[in-house]
Amino acid sequence: MQRATANALLLVTGAVWGMGFVAQSTAMDPIGPVFFTGVRFFAAALAVAPLALWEARRARAAGSPPLTPRQWGSFGVLGTLLFASLAAQQIGLLTTTVTNSGFLTGTYVVFVPVLVVLALREFPHPVVWPAAVLTLGGIWLLSGGALSGLTEGDLWTLLCAVLWACHVIALGRFVKGAPRPFTLAFTQFAVCGVIGCTIAPFIEPVSLDLIVAAAPEIAFAGIVSGGIAFTIQAVAQRHTTAPQAAIFMSTEAPFAALFGALFLAERIPAIGIVGCALIFTAILAVELVPMLRPARRSTVHEP
């Protein structure tokens, strides 16, 4: 798969996640966030299970070696990071505003290249740095261009951004070393579902009636936003870098605003439209500048 194709798929992932915000916002009326997250990812695991089975049969037919315990452990780490980042965001929303949460979660576009350099000693193409700042500025404007007073919830949301950055980086590393992205996706969804449904009874109501009441939202957030979009991410990140992936997936913010306007009658202010333009400018820069000015292989990590 070409890098441009992989980045286009990650753009689709951002769009699907943006639409998923509509389902996630309406689902919180009948069901708690942790229980919703657990059930949602069980639905995602069921959706991906046929692809994982097909992938396993194909690997056996081709004589490929089975996955090692280390690879299975890596998949479990991804599921744990996925749940931890989402849980931190939900806890943060208890004491912070949606505006603060949207912006602070988006800071992962800066955390990803910084952590890649610090932890992996890999240097992305120079255009990633201004593009990340431009994307962050776009998310800031899309959030209204202002933050209310910082609270404990904001610290939880920053933790969510760091954990999600770690998930993006880890996924990029593990998926390149494992030839079975569908199995990886299924395992991380199952782990996330188990953790969520294990913790939920201790902190919020849990019952079959709640699942039935939120069934449409669970189906969309689980199968489409979860099963399909996260699996596309697992497949596409094999062919691009984590910093570039973070910028393309950050389009969930403008897509969320767009679908919120279409389905929830929310208004996008003029400053938000400018923010969307900045985000898409950053995307064009990340995609086109490397074609015009290839990075030096001696100092820059390229896919």
Please, could you describe this protein's structure?
By secondary structure, the chain is mainly alpha-helical. It has one domain. It is built from 13 helices and no strands.
Mean pLDDT: 79
Residue share in β-strands = under 5%
Number of domains: 1
Shape: globular
Report the strand count. 0
Structural class: mainly alpha
Termini separation (Å)? 11 Å
How many individual helices? 13
The helix fraction, in percent, is over 70%
Radius of gyration: 19 Å
The ordered H/E elements are HHHHHHHHHHHHH
Give the oligomer, counting copies of the same chain as homo and different chains as hetero: single chain
List the helices and strands and how they pair.
Layout: H1 3-27, H2 33-61, H3 69-92, H4 98-106, H5 108-120, H6 128-142, H7 152-177, H8 181-203, H9 208-213, H10 215-236, H11 242-249, H12 252-263, H13 270-292
Top keywords for this entry?
303 residues, mainly alpha, single chain, globular, disordered C terminus
Structure at a glance:
The chain has helices at 3-27, 33-61, 69-92, 98-106, 108-120, 128-142, 152-177, 181-203, 208-213, 215-236, 242-249, 252-263, 270-292. It is an all-alpha fold and 303 residues long.
